[in-house]
TrEMBL record:
Its cofactor is heme. It comes from Intrasporangium oryzae NRRL B-24470. Coiled coil: none annotated. It comes from the Bacteria. PROSITE patterns: GLOBIN_FAM_2. This is Globin. Pfam families: Bac_globin. GO terms for molecular function: heme binding; metal ion binding; oxygen binding; oxygen carrier activity.
Length: 128
């Protein structure tokens, strides 16, 4: 049994990512970081990545190679404000899942750490 299974498998990750991108679509500043007009491909990539990370199918690596998250995000100015916007929408999406407290905490901890690790541009006050 994997965390992927504990979280509820594909349906849970599909719901998480779909709810997250609903928030992104309505957030003009965060949406500007996504170059594609259609958020569908980004939604699919994030879902596949999260499924693989948590022990589900390895489709992400099979299609896209090693995740290399920091490298893949370097072309975008990920500021503390963008991180916080991302986390707002992602935490709202986690809220929609109704996970058991242990799984909820585990998922939120990972997502928060990942968001902080991807900041690559200082905010207006010079802080990361």
């Amino acid at each position: 049994m994997t965390y992927y299974d504990d979280f509820g498998g594909h349906d849970t990750f599909a719901k998480l990512v779909h709810e997250f991108y609903r928030g992104v679509a309505a957030d003009e500043q965060l949406r500007a970081l996504y170059p594609e007009e259609d958020l569908g491909p980004a939604e699919e990539r994030l879902r596949m990545f999260l499924e693989q990370y948590w022990g589900g199918p390895t489709t992400y690596s099979e299609q896209r190679g090693h995740p290399r998250l920091r490298m893949r995000h370097m072309p975008y100015a990920v500021t503390p404000d963008m991180r916080d916007r991302w986390l707002l929408h992602m935490m709202n999406a986690v809220d929609s899942l109704g996970l058991e407290p242990e799984q909820d905490d585990r998922l939120r901890d990972y997502l928060t750490r990942a968001a902080y690790s991807l900041v690559n541009t200082a905010g207006p006050d010079g802080t990361f």
